[in-house]
Structure formats: structure tokens, C-alpha cells
Design a protein that fits this description.
The complex is a heterodimer of chains A (180) and B (551).
Chain A (H helix, E strand, L loop, with lengths): L2 E3 L4 E2 L4 E2 L12 E4 H6 L1 H5 L5 E5 L5 H4 L6 E8 L6 H12 L5 E6 L6 H6 L4 E3 L6 H7 L32 H8 L1
Parallel strand pairs in A: 3-4, 4-5, 5-6, 6-7, 7-8
Antiparallel strand pairs in A: 1-2, 1-8
Chain B lengths: L5 H23 L4 H9 L3 E3 L4 E5 L5 E3 H14 L3 E4 L5 E3 L7 H10 L16 E2 L14 H11 L14 E4 L13 E7 L5 E7 L11 E8 L3 H15 L10 H8 L1 H14 L2 H4 L3 H10 L13 H9 L1 H10 E3 L5 E6 L10 E3 H14 L3 E4 L5 E7 L3 H10 L14 E2 L14 H10 L3 H7 L4 E4 L13 E8 L2 E8 L11 E2 L4 E2 H18 L6 H8 L2 H8 L3
Parallel strand pairs in B: 6-7, 7-8, 16-17, 17-18
Antiparallel strand pairs in B: 1-2, 2-5, 3-14, 4-5, 4-13, 8-9, 9-10, 11-12, 12-15, 14-15, 18-19, 19-20, 19-21
Classes of the chains: A alpha/beta (180), B alpha+beta (551).
Amino acid sequence: MPLIDYAGRVLDDPWRFLADDEALPERGPIAVSLARWRAERKTLLRHDGPLGLALKGHESAEHAAGDLEQFGLITLEFPKFTDGRAYSTARLLRERHGYAGELRAVGAVLRDQLQFLKRCGFDSFVLADEVALGEIARALKEITVVYQHAADGPRWTAERSLGDHAGPGDSAISKAYRAN
Amino acid sequence: MYRYTDQDRQLVRERVEQFRDQVRRRLSGALSEEEFKPLRLMNGLYLQLHAYMLRVAIPYGTLSSLQLRKLAHIARRYDKGYGHFTTRQNLQFNWPTLEDTPDILAELAEVDMHAIQTSGNCIRNVTADHFAGAAAGEIEDPRIWCEIIRQWSTLHPEFSFLPRKFKIAVSATEQDRAALRVHDIGVKLRRDDTGAIGFEVMVGGGQGRTPVLAKTIRPFLPAERLLSYLEAILRVYNLLGRRDNLYKSRIKILVDSVGPEEFTRMVEEEWRQIPHDRVDLPAEEVERIRAHFAPPRFEHLSERDPGFELYRRCDHGFARWVRANVAWHKQCGYAIASLSLKPHGGIPGDATAEQMDAVADLADRYSFGEIRVTHEQNLALVHVRRRDLYELWKALVALELATPNIGLATDIIACPGLDYCSLANARSIPVAQRISTALQNIDRLGQIGELKIKISGCINACGHHHVGHIGILGVDKKGEEFYQITLGGSADEQAALGEIIGPAFSSERVVWAVETIIDTYLKLRVPEERFLDTYRRLGLNPFKETLYAAH
């Protein structure tokens, strides 16, 4: 399945994912495992091109927290689609550690997770199965009401219409009240 | 009670359409059963032994008469004319078809109901004291906070694929009717020295094959910080809970493996780093929800009603029902009436569509149109004028909902067991029926006094056997149903786990065993002593001796 962003667009993936024993290319965007990043940090920092980090399901946000400004891409792996650790990892990367680069969901990623992923701060994903693009667009619009704060901003009930979050302190809050 | 806003309604409707599409994709083969399973479970749809089962959420056990009528309608139209109230204050329909479930959910949405998160590895439907809003000594109505938790946990993007299911219960009185200590999280409203309200937070309780009582990890959490604190607990669990072994994946195992002190430290550390103001509701939003739980317009009545007193003196049956099934109300002149779903020889928790409709009518007439579902699988009308109790009782007698056995030996909790459930090792319902038939002498029931018998058909403990005064667990021994008995469990404010008394009994002998335990208690008790207190005073031995003497 191709790489897709949350506008439902198919993206050309500029990133090259290197195996741990694979030679570094001369230039261009590369992504490496946490193990390789730790072992070859100095060499990688000299690489001519953007760096990406591929975190496994058991690797936490704290493992990368000190180096986040180095990465233009972080991928979080879903070993099984029922393994929900990466949702927490994503929120921590975005909300606590201020990671601002691309956050990509890979592995066992299914259509029915897309809205949750988006709310936790992912902005691209590689689906495990073939799904028509129209279907993806539909999946992203299924639920338009949210009840809780997450990486995408809205704080709580009265602010809970997706696509309508103006952030904390918004006067829409009191408006929503009066409407009730 | 809480009334949906347009947005609440919109979410539930969107959820119905989302599920309709998931069912369509399952039926077309686009979704495998493996992929569909967690999706249907998050909408309360199980695949049981003989059919699908749909578990409808009754948040914190509160129903309006309109909602109960809708459940009756669904029972008639899509099921076999009845429903089963569960120990999680929910309602299960046992015979829907997969194709019908989206329509059933659409019908539920019409009355602001759903089946969201009644199953699956997510935050389940939140439960509460079933006498909330009526119980004496309440700090405030715990359902305010239940509704806040309900909204926050609904389709939570971070916590929808947890290591395992997650159950939260809320209570607001010293007396614990919500079994807080056997929940993943139990929160109890209390006041601190300054009079501010907050929660005692208990974590890591649960039943199943490793029963554990929850530990208090915070004696006082300011009430307005509830959601951020829950988020901290859930995040620690989501990241660190085991996912490699189904039987070790509940939060209780995590708390136990790192130790309660270390777990507490991790939660506090996480909580400190959460921006509370973004997660917790602003005061005005709490007030908006609180306003929905304002007390109904009680009349100013005197505590004594001459008619009520007269009927109680003259009508022995009424007096007995009042004694067993009516509880004190905090409002002068009102009472809480429990409707027993445990007719002697009947199926615990089942109600027919006709009974549901009739109870809805009675709720409209006598209790502000509101019905409660208890975790002990009964119903309650919690705001009844004392002067109406006699008429209510007569109506309930006609409906077979007036068995005077609340809290007594025949008020048995039983899981669906092998009659329905694909996980069960043994039948629970027929055992409950046989015990309740054997113990049905009303005078004797009164003599025995408070006695909670709880039956599970397998180690998953849906029938709460670990916390039964007498707990009964169905086990499979070489293809034959056997029943292991525990004594001394309790789910209240003095929570305790039962102890296994000895080798299991055959299905034939289990009723005899229960009767023998009761006889032993009656012989050994001091005046006014409850079964549980006799057990606590004397331990297992005297019961063991009489039970196994012949062997």
C-alpha cells in the first residue's frame, strides 16, 4: 500500500529506510533504527540529507527525546493493530517533547484506526492492506465529534467538533454553552 | 439524569453509520473475522455459543422510562422477547443477527443510547452506586463524574487498544455499593479537611483468574483533576501493561509486578507532566454536566406516612417486601424500592419485554421516570414517595418483580454460563435456579439474613464469585461440570476475596453443599450475626468439617 497523508493524498516517499548493516548512501533522506542511531550517531549527524528514525513497538518516546530536532521523520511501528502503545508514544512525541516533523504509522495499520491515529498526532501512514483512496477519505470523516484533548488540539466537550478547533481559550466555548 | 446535546447525539449517530459500514465490509469479506472482531467488540457485539450477543451500555446504570421502553421494543422486534441485565449494569440481547445490529444501534441512538465500549480492550462503560442521588450520606451524585468519564473515555484516540479491558467505578458514600475494590480503577468521592471535594483513587483491582483488591494510590485527588489523573494511569498502563499473555495483561498484574509504590510514583510522575488545564474540564463544563444531575423536584413530605405505616402493620407480605427491598432515602418521605429480578427458580437478571414496559410505566408514575440497574442484576426505582409504596408493591407483585429477597440468599448473581457463553466451563443459571428453589421459603430467607451467593461459569469470574459471601465457580473435570466453593468474599467497603473451602462438588451435590454451609452458619452464629461475620469470626474450618465430614 502506498504512503498516504491525512488529506488522503498518495505521497511519493522520499525516505530510504536503511537496514542496520546497510551502507549509508552519499546523500538524501535516510531513516535508521534506534539501535543504529545510538551506535552511529556521530556519523549519521554528518550525513548529507535529512534523518529519520524508525521506532519499534516497544521503543518509547523517551528513547529519542533528546535528539528530536535531528529528525524530519519518525515512524512508529504497530506490531499488531491491537497493540496500542504507539498511540501514547505519538502523543508524547507531539505534546510533551514538541516533535514537529513527520510522524508516520507503519506496520499493522488498518483503515479503521485512521481517525485515532490522526488525533494522536500522526500525519501519514502506510496501510497494511489495499484500500481504495475513496474509502480512506470516508474513514477520515466517519466521526466528527470528539470528547477529549489529544494531539490535535481540542480540549473538551464544548470544543469537540473536529475541524473546528481554534485552541484553548476560544470564545466558541461559551457560544456552545449558550446553544445548549 | 443526563440529557444528550446535539453533539452527543451526532456522535452516536455517526457511530451507528460507522458500524453499519463495518458490518457491510465484514459481510462482503473485505474485513476478515480477525479484523472485524475488535471493531464489533467495541460496539458491544460478541459471538456466543449459539448466536451473536449485543451488550447495550446503560451508563452508570441509569435509564429513563423512554429508554427502557425502547429496550423492550428491541427485545420484541429483534430478539426473543427478553433481555438480560448484567453485573456491569448493562443489558444483553442474546439473539440478534449480525445483519440486524446496525438497525438495533440506530434504534438505540433514537433514545440517546449506544453499545459503545461495552466490550473490547478499551475503557468500558463506567459503573456507579445504583442508589446515586438517593443514598443518604452522599458527598454528591457520583453520576456527574461518571458522565464526565463516559464522555472523556468515548472513542478515546489513545486508549482504544489497551492491553486488556479496563473498568472504572465511581461511588460517593462510605458504604460501597459499586464494588470499587474489584475494578481496574475505583474512585470514591470524599472531602478533605477544608471541605473541598475530591477522590480517593484505587487502582489494580479485578477478578478473573487472578483476583486482586485495588490499592489506594492517592488518598485525595482534587475532583477537578480527575481526567488528567485517569489519563496518567491509563498512559502508564497502555505503555507498560503486558501484551504477550492474555492472562497477565490487566493493570492489576502491572501494579503487582512493579509494586504499588513504584506504580504510584510512575503515575504521579506522568501526571505532573500532563498539562492539566488541557485535559481537565473547565469549571463551567463540570457545572453544565452537574446541572443535569440536580435532584428531582421532591415534595416536602413528612417522614411518617400514616397509610404506609398502616399497610405495613396489616399486610404481612408488604411488610416483608419493605424490610428486604426498600431502602432509606435521603429525602424525607421518600424511599428507594428495589425490583427483584431474582424470582425463585427464575433466571437471575432476565426481564421480559412486558416487564420492561410495565416498569417504565411505574417509573413514570412513581419515580420521576427514572430506573436504575444494579450490579447485582436487579432494578430499582429510587425516588418513590413512601405513601406510594403500597400501590407500587401491588403492581410489582402482579409483574413478579416483588420477590422480597434483595440482599438475601436467593438474590443470586450468576453469569450467563454455558447456556450462552463460549468461554464458560459450566452452567451457572441452572445452578442459581436450583439453589433459589431450594432456599425459597421466605421466612427462612429472613432468618438467614444477608447472604450473597455469586456464581461464575468459568474463571473469568463474570459472576463475581471471588467476592460472594458464598462464591461458586464452575469448572470442567473431564467433561463433567463441577463447582468449587469459596467463602468469605465481599465486594463492599470491607472488600475481601473468598477462600476456597476444599474439593469441588458435582452439579448434583452443589445445592446440598450450599444448604449445609447455611445450616452450619445458623448453628454457629451468635444472635444478629451476619453470615459474613460468622465466617470472619470462625474461619473456614467449621464449614469444612460439616461439608467434608462424610468423606
